[in-house]
């Protein structure tokens, strides 16, 4: 861990704990998040975790920048991951099919693996939720194995269906709402990833884990999935 505090704005400080993305970072990020929330208490406006950083937005009318830095330093003294602090584990059903996941064939060609093996390898393990961003409820997860890694599309799509599951480099994600996007699409989930009526809005939070579960077309439809082919939604 290489702790640094950087200025983001008059009332925001960035606490940088690591320099590289790693699944091993998350226990430390969760411990730091808990400690900072407790230290700032009612003076904390927002705390935004990411892969290697935590952005602390505090009440400037209650704390000076110097006082905020002091609270951060005190909160992170002798920081230690808590083995009992774990996020939720989510199982997301996914219908893997070329009509909703056109890059399945591309990933198959790039990796030299059969399409069924690409699906098996994507769905066999749990992924860490690193951060939320890009769109409400969009969870950046990883890391996919190297064989499945693929760069973003050279030309992003203007419209990606809600629930679309994709891969970009060694990250994977599911689009919570209809939006533009340049990830390699491999399937679609019927799960409701963003809900204004849900506490916290997003189904997933940093520190949670996710496992994708391959389901049949019939199961996907029974779960409320939209099987409209991607081309028909463009």
UniProtKB/TrEMBL annotation:
This entry's Gene Ontology molecular function terms read:
ATP binding; hydrolase activity
Task: Report the InterPro entries cross-referenced here.
Answer: CT_C_D (IPR003833), Cyclophilin-like_dom_sf (IPR029000), PxpB (IPR010016)
Highest taxon of the source? Bacteria
Alphabetized UniProt keyword annotations: ATP-binding, Hydrolase, Nucleotide-binding
The coiled-coil regions, if any, are none
Give every Carboxyltransferase domain span: 3-204
Q: What is the recorded name of this protein?
A: Allophanate hydrolase subunit 1
**What lineage does the source organism belong to?**
Bacteria, Pseudomonadati, Pseudomonadota, Gammaproteobacteria, Pseudomonadales
């Amino acid at each position: 861990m290489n702790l640094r505090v950087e200025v983001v704005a008059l009332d925001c400080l960035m606490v940088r704990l690591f320099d590289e993305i790693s699944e091993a970072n998350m226990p430390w990020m969760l411990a730091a998040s808990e400690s900072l929330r407790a230290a700032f208490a009612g003076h904390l406006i927002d705390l935004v975790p990411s892969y290697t950083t935590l952005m602390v937005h505090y009440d400037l009318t209650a704390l000076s920048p110097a006082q905020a830095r002091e609270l951060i330093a005190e909160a992170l003294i002798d920081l230690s991951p808590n083995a009992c602090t774990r996020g939720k584990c989510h199982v997301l059903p996914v219908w893997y099919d070329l009509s909703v996941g056109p890059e399945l064939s591309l990933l198959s060609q790039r990796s030299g693996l059969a399409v069924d093996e690409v699906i098996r390898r994507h769905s066999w393990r749990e992924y860490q939720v690193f951060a939320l961003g890009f769109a409400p409820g969009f969870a950046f997860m990883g890391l996919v194995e190297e064989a499945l890694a693929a760069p973003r599309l050279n030309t992003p799509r203007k419209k990606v269906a809600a629930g679309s599951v994709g891969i970009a480099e060694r990250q994977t994600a599911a689009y919570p709402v209809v939006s533009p996007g340049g990830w390699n699409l491999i399937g679609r989930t019927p799960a409701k990833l963003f809900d204004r009526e849900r506490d916290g809005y997003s189904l997933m939070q940093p520190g949670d884990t996710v496992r994708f579960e391959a389901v049949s077309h019939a199961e996907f439809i029974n779960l409320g999935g939209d099987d409209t082919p991607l081309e028909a939604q463009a």
